[in-house]
Amino acid sequence: MGFDLDGWVGEASFWRKVFVVFGLGFLARLFLNLFFHFRWGWRAVNQIELWFYAGVADGSYVKYLHGGWLDPTVWILRPLGFLLPRDFLAYGVGFAGVFLSALTGVLVYVLVRQSQEGRTAVYSALIYSFMVEVLALSTVSFTHGLVQIPLMLSLMVVAGRLADSSSRREGLLLSGLYLAIAFFGFRVNVEMSVGVFISIAYALGLTVKKEYSGVYAGLVCLAIVLGGILILPPVLAGVVGRLPQG
Predict the structure, then answer these.
(1) How far apart are CA 188 and CA 148, in angstroms?
(2) Fewest CB within a 10 Å sphere: which of 59, 133, 148, 231?
(3) 217: which DSSP letter?
(4) Using CA of residue 170, residue 67, residue 79, residue 138, what is the dihedral sign?
């Protein structure tokens, strides 16, 4: 008898699924990082931004970040500057990228689980975790996207919880958490506006009646397409182009 993966996914507990999604994503990224170093050398990098964020870790480049000390990237990387020798900072930053990217897969699982059954959520998270571009961005690399994407997904998770909340107290707490995530997301860069837009659309989608879901989905897709074509590119190109981290 072979191992019934689909059956196991359906029966496993929430935390076991989280552990599997994170563990598989983390191990795959760790392997790719080690393979890259063995193939190209221990001082080679996949994305040159890694050296910039090594400077953020030691404190010398924090002033060049859009949000300065309010950028969550600083909170993640700056402790490495105190814990690691300068010559090892790049490795620490790369490892942080591996961790954040694997954690993003978990957030995908949590998000999909809000509206779909457990199997769909697990497979969605694994598909995301093993996408080529996602793996490449966490292979001897660190970019603002490794921080921004988890914040956007967290925003959607909180918005989804808020849409389902029936308690006034819980609603206030979730609203405060939503605003805090959005605030610090904008400290990373203006791309957080995309997360705010999508999270609002997602929350509205969870609240509409079933008979209107098709019309609603069409309107959301149309808004995303029009917004993506007419509004976001010129705004993002102008703002992001002025940031040293790209």
Answers:
(1) 7
(2) 133
(3) H
(4) positive
Q: Mean pLDDT over residues 34-49, rounded?
A: 91
Please state, in angstroms and rounded to a whole number, the distance separating the CA atoms of residues 33 and 137: 11
Mean pLDDT of the chain: 84
Q: What is the pLDDT of residues 117-129, one digit of tens each?
A: 778 899 999 999 9
Handedness of CA 205, 208, 210, 211 (dihedral sign): negative
**pTM for the full model?**
0.82
Exposed, middle or buried, 1 (CB in 10 Å: 0-12/13-18/19+)?
Answer: exposed
What does the pLDDT read at residue 241? 65
Among 36, 243, 25, smallest CA distance to 144 is for 243
Q: Which residue has the tokens 């914040």?
A: 151
Rg of the chain over Cα atoms, rounded to whole angstroms, equals 20
Task: Kindly state the tokens that stand for 192.
Answer: 């957080």
Cα distance between residue 109 and residue 212, in whole Å: 26
Q: Where are the domains of the chain?
A: 1-143, 145-246
* Range of lowest pLDDT (42-46, 160-164, 220-224): 220-224
d(CA 228, CA 85): 43
Crossing angle of helices 89-113/118-129, nearest 10°?
Answer: 150
The single residue listed with the structure tokens 């397409």 is 225
First to last CA, the chain: 52
CA dihedral 6, 8, 12, 15 (to 10 degrees): -80
* Alpha carbon distance 161, 181 (integer Å): 14
| Residue 63 Cα to chain centre, angstroms | 23
